[in-house]
Amino acid sequence: MEISALAQDVLAGNRRALARAITMVESTRPDHRATAADLLEHLSGAGREAIRIGLSGTPGVGKSTFIESFGLMLAEDGLRVAVLAVDPSSARTGGSILGDKTRMEQLSRHPRAFIRPSPSQTHLGGVARRTREAVALCEAADFDVVLIETVGVGQSETVVAELSDTFLLLLAPAGGDELQGVKRGIMEVADLIVVNKADGDLKATATRTCADYAGALRLLRRRPQDPEGFPKAMTVSALEQSGLDRVWTEIMNLITWRRENGHWQDRRAAQARHWFFEEVRQSLLSRLDQPDAKARTAALCAEVTTGQTTPSKAAAALLDQIWPEMSQHRRTESLDLAQDSP
Length: 342
Fold this sequence. Notes:
Number of domains: 3
CATH superfamily of the largest domain: P-loop containing nucleotide triphosphate hydrolases
CATH topology of the largest domain: Rossmann fold
Strand order of the largest sheet: 3-2-4-1-5-6-7
Strand content: 5-15%
Structural class: alpha/beta
Number of helices: 14
């Protein structure tokens, strides 16, 4: 399929075309990468923006149940909802289960919803390397809301904050202890802390847990991009579908305030800069997989192992090969230092 035809189908909201486009941007084949870059460039002029909501949580907190109930509520209100779910990849086989569609059976059948599971592969941070491009494609396909579900929760699972307009952290009742080691990092980027399973025998426990986290949030320094009262904690029951409308109201209150005070576009611009530098880093790393770089890496590794050179000197030699301009800059810098020295 030609790029222009695929782009038109994506802009028309064709879900099959959107799925094909996401498959293309996730591919590691050089020809697919070039085609994907052209496609994204073609679609960038559409000027469409969705509300991007990042979501993370501890295992067993009910992320899939929450996303299905929340997504169904939005879809029934007439919004088009895309869900990008990142599944963990096996460290041994590299495979992923990708079972999110089966866990969100009702939402996956809704005509105004689109669910796309993707493997995390070797990418850290809770999202896949090409999740950002997948978000851009969903925006081009004119979805109103894009929900981005991370692999799990931890100090490194904060990359989703660089993809989203608001970041929700889901917690289970009495789940404070399990988050002690990670909450400082992830709570500092969360906009809303949502205590799920506030129903039945757990309702009172969920209320106490919410109060505990609300108190903890007051100890954090207020961020300049937040209005008074944010970040905040609240309880929901995804199973009983209670409290979901309040979560949506708070999300819209936060987004409206940020738009009116200039933080929305500043945040989007900062995210674009972040992903530019991230793409540069990943592209440099990908050069190490090229045959000449692999051979040079193996040779330098052998020299390091036998003590013929140091790791830092070997790394500099390898970088000089894959990025010759760096070697020239280093020589010029050394010459300038030598001339300046007494």
